[in-house]
Write a structure and sequence with these properties.
The protein is α+β, with helices and mostly antiparallel strands. Helices cover 48% and strands 19% of the residues. It folds into three domains: 2-92, no CATH class; 112-168, Roll (SH3 type barrels), CATH 2.30.30.60; 175-272, Alpha-Beta Plaits (2-Layer Sandwich). Helix 1 runs antiparallel to helix 2 and helix 5 packs antiparallel against helix 6.
Length: 303
C-alpha cells in the first residue's frame, strides 16, 4: 500500500513538472511569435524595438507567475514564495538581479536609449541594444583617436547604472562644447587674426548655434542651471613665445571631429592669404648671450 502511494505521488510530481515545462515552452513560443508578428506589422523601428522589449518583459512575468502557482499550489502563498525565493537566490544571483533591475530603471527613468552616445564604467560608445541583462554598445576611442568607432561591440551589465556615473551625450542636449588653441606669432596683426578666427567660426557654426539655443533653453527650464553662451568665443593668452588664441564653440556631438578639422583648415587658409600680416608661431629658442669662459693654464718647467 505504501509503495502504491509513493508511486502515485511520484507520478503526480512528474505530471505537474511536465505540465509546468509545457506551459513555459508555450510562453516562449508565444513570445517569439508575437515578436515576429510585431516586427512585420509595425512601421517604425523605434516602436518595433520598444514593443519587442515589452513582450519580453511580460513573458518573464508570466513565467514567474506560473512557477509560483505550480510550486506553491496556490496563489495565496505568493508572498511566502517570493520571500523564500529571494532569500535563497539573492546572494548567488545578486549580479543578475541587479542587472534586471537596472534594465527596468533604464527604461522607466530613461537614463539612455538605443542611439544615444554614452560613457559608462570608463567605456564610451553608441548604444545599439538594451535587453533585460546587458547594454550593447559600439565602442568609441581606445586606440582610435577622437570620436571614431574602434570596431568592437561591447556588452555591459545593466547593473553598472547603479554603480557609477552615466555620461549621456544625447539626452536633452545633443551638443557639446569644444575648443582648440592657435599659436599666433608676436608681431602679427592681432585684430586681423581675431577677425579671421571669429568670422570663420560664425560662418561654419551658425547652424549648430541656432539649433542649440532652443535645446539649451529647454535644459535651463528643466534643471537648476544657469544660462550659457552658445555663440563662438575667443580668448587670448600671452605666452613666452606667442599669442595663444583659444576658440571655444558648440557643436553636434556626432560632428565634433569633422567640425574641428574644417575650422582648422579654413582658418589656416585665411591666415596664409594675409601674406605675413598674420603668421602661425612655432616653438623657438633664443640664445640671448654666450658667457665668456676664462681658462687658466699652469705650466711648470721641468729641470
Amino acid at each position: 500500500m505504501e509503495e502504491l502511494k509513493s508511486l502515485y505521488l511520484n507520478n503526480m510530481i512528474l505530471a505537474n513538472l511536465l505540465k509546468y515545462l509545457i506551459w513555459v515552452v508555450l510562453v516562449f513560443v508565444a513570445i517569439a511569435w508575437l515578436r515576429r508578428f510585431l516586427k512585420k506589422r509595425l512601421p517604425d523601428n523605434a516602436l518595433k524595438y520598444k514593443s519587442q522589449k515589452g513582450i519580453e518583459v511580460i513573458g518573464y512575468i508570466v513565467i514567474i507567475f506560473i512557477s509560483i502557482t505550480y510550486f506553491t499550489g496556490s496563489i495565496k502563498d505568493f508572498g511566502l514564495a517570493i520571500g523564500l525565493l529571494t532569500a535563497g537566490i539573492t546572494i548567488t544571483l545578486q549580479e543578475l538581479i541587479l542587472s534586471i533591475a537596472g534594465s527596468f530603471y533604464i527604461f522607466i527613468v530613461k537614463v539612455y536609449k538605443p542611439g544615444d552616445r554614452i560613457e559608462i564604467n570608463g567605456i564610451k560608445g553608441d548604444v545599439i541594444d538594451i535587453d533585460s541583462i546587458y547594454t550593447t554598445m559600439m565602442e568609441i576611442g581606445e586606440w582610435v583617436t577622437s570620436d571614431n568607432y574602434s570596431g568592437r561591440i561591447v556588452k555591459l551589465s545593466n547593473a553598472f547604472v547603479f554603480k557609477g556615473p552615466v555620461y549621456n551625450y544625447s539626452t536633452d542636449f545633443p551638443f557639446v562644447w569644444d575648443e582648440f588653441n592657435l599659436p599666433i606669432k608676436y608681431g602679427s596683426d592681432v585684430e586681423l587674426a581675431k577677425s579671421i578666427i571669429i568670422s570663420t567660426a560664425q560662418e561654419h557654426l551658425a547652424k549648430f548655434v541656432q539649433e542649440s539655443k532652443a535645446d539649451w533653453q529647454a535644459v535651463v527650464n528643466k534643471y537648476y542651471i544657469e544660462n550659457a553662451v552658445v555663440e563662438p568665443t575667443l580668448a587670448i593668452k600671452l605666452t613666452d613665445n606667442w599669442f595663444e588664441f583659444n576658440l571655444r564653440y558648440i557643436v553636434d556631438y556626432k560632428k565634433r571631429r569633422m567640425t574641428k578639422n574644417l575650422l582648422n583648415e579654413e582658418i589656416g587658409k585665411r591666415i596664409f592669404e594675409t601674406k605675413g600680416k598674420v603668421a602661425l608661431a612655432s616653438a623657438t629658442f633664443e640664445i640671448v648671450t654666450i658667457p665668456t669662459l676664462h681658462v687658466k693654464s699652469d705650466h711648470k718647467t721641468a729641470t
